[in-house]
Structures are given as C-alpha cells and as structure tokens.
Amino acid sequence: MKDFFELPTPSYTFEIFPPKGAKSLDGTYATIDNLASLSPDLISVTYGAGGSSRDNTVEIASGIQNKYGICGVAHLTCVGSTRENIWAILRLLKSNGVSNILALRGDLPEGEASLGDFHHASELISFIKKEEGDTFNLFAACYPEKHLEASSLEEDLRYLKEKCDLGVKGLITQLFYDNDIFCRWRDQARAAGIKQPIIAGIMPITSANQIDKIVTLCGASVPTRVQRFVDAYRHNSGAVREAGIAYATEQIIDLLARGVDGIHLYTMNQPDVVRRIDEGIRSILYSVRVKRA
C-alpha cells in the first residue's frame, strides 16, 4: 500500500462513520466493500463526540488498510480528553498499524462542560508531535467560510497557519456549496503561507432536512440555485436526492477544472450516492491526473 502522500493529485478520498456503541460492524464493512471498488486514495473514519466510537474507529481504519489495501485515516478529537486518554489512543492506533490521523478539537458531548486538557486542535497536534515525532501523518480540518467560533476569516487563517507550522501534512475542508467562496479562501490561505495540500470536502445533498441542519450546524452558505431546488422539491425526497447528486457532480467537475488538490466526499455511508457521482467524474478525474503528472 502506497503512502497517501506518494499518490498522484488530485486525490480522491471518502469519509465514513462507524456505528455508535457496540453495534455490529457488518453494515460498515458492507459500505466499505462498495466504496473500495471505486479505488479511493484514502478512507477516513469519524470519531464520535467525546470518543464514543473510539474503538470502532481504530478497528475500521485498521481494516481499511489491512483488508482493502487502502490508506486509512482515523479521526481523533481531543475535547473532554486528558493527555493520558490521548496517549492511550495513540498507542492503540500504533498497535493496529494506523499511521494517519485527522486531528480535531471536536464538540463536547451533550451535558458536559469541561474541554479537558486540550482546548484547540493545535494543542492536540503539538502533543502528538511531541510524544510521537513523525510516527503519524497528521491531517487537519480547515474552514473556507471560517470556523463558527472565529471572530474573522483572517483570525481563522492565522490559527490554521499555526496548525500547519506544527507539522500537518494535509488539510481537509469543511463542506461547502459555493466553489467561488472556496477558491477565494484557497488563494488567501496560499497568500498566508499555507503550502499543504488543501482537499475540498463535498457533501452531496440528499434531503431537504439535511441542508437545513447543515446550515444551522456549520454555517455553510447555500447558493440561490441550490436553495431553489431544495425548496421546489422539498416534498419530493427523490427529486431532492437526484438534484443533489447532480449538483455535487457539477461542483466536483468545476473544482477539478480550477486546480483543486483533492476531493473528499462525505459519503454519509451512502455508497449508492457516491457511485452515481463517481460515474460522472471518473473520466475527468483521471484525465486531470494524467495532465498534472
């Protein structure tokens, strides 16, 4: 298995989430079976609030590498954790052969008030580098429309540069629906001295409720044309799904034309949606790779 950073650009990667608690992983592995056939460069595995799915995340990320020969990335959130907690998780990752981490602050579980020993993702990244050196390849999150808690885009970019300077190898963006916003932000990030690959996070719209929730949770801008089809088809779930798949496909094709470093699909464990998008972008993706090689 090649290291992710040895692969051609633009990269093509997916995100999945594990089941909560002690539920069977059969459904998750069925999803991975389906996604693996599309030959992604990497599959990342999310990590529940406060580490609620920690063991599943490690097991699945390890299985992605050992069973499927695909680069696996384990999400690791630090909110509510102690240094001892994180150190134990790093040992677990190492013992399972997982060397790629997406380092995140995360959100506090409902009902908890303490952030723990880490208040920012940069503190987690610094801790991992201090304890483990270059044992792990570290990814970090970034926000084309700034983190909701940042006072300005400029402040958010300063914090992002801090994370990058600590030794992050790649960045994965929060989802967005306006490519112009992403490209302006990417130019600002480069002007700020951020040189790491910036992988664009794309979440296909598959329901009206989904887009309503996304706007509330992460503040992503919704272009007029997207809101128009969501509103027009709100009571026709199949139509929203079809329009959302079409829009995500169009978004990716446009990003490839604009020189994006990579595409990261938030799959929501819906491989049928990913397969539809893959059909629309695959030939273009590979022709762009050949041109850049």
Draw up the topology in text.
Layout lengths: L10 E6 L9 H11 L5 E4 L8 H13 L4 E7 L5 H13 L4 E5 L16 H12 L4 E6 L10 H13 L4 E4 L5 H13 L6 E5 L5 H11 L5 H9 L4 H21 L4 E5 L4 H22 L1
Helix pairs in contact: 1-10, 4-5, 9-10
Structure, described:
There is one protein chain. With 293 residues, the chain is of the alpha/beta class. The chain has one domain: TIM Barrel, CATH 3.20.20.220. It has helices at residues 26-36, 54-66, 83-95, 121-132, 153-165, 179-191, 208-218, 224-232, 237-257, 271-292; strands at residues 11-16, 42-45, 71-77, 100-104, 137-142, 170-173, 198-202, 262-266. β2 (42-45), α2 and β3 form a beta-alpha-beta unit. α9 packs parallel to α10. The longest helix has 22 residues, at 271-292. The mean pLDDT is 92.
Radius of gyration: 18 Å
Helical content stands at: 40-55%
The strand count comes to 8
Question: What does the largest sheet look like?
Answer: 8 strands, parallel, barrel
Name the helix and strand elements from N-terminus to C-terminus, one letter apiece. Answer: EHEHEHEHEHEHEHHHEH
Number of domains: 1
State the name of the first-level CATH class: Alpha Beta
Strand order, largest beta sheet: 1-2-3-4-5-6-7-8
CA-CA gap between termini: 20 Å
| Fraction in beta strands | 5-15%
Which architecture per CATH? Answer: Alpha-Beta Barrel
Task: Give a brief rundown of this model.
The chain is α/β, with parallel strands linked by helices.
Summary keywords:
10 helices, eight-stranded parallel beta barrel, 293 residues, alpha/beta, TIM Barrel
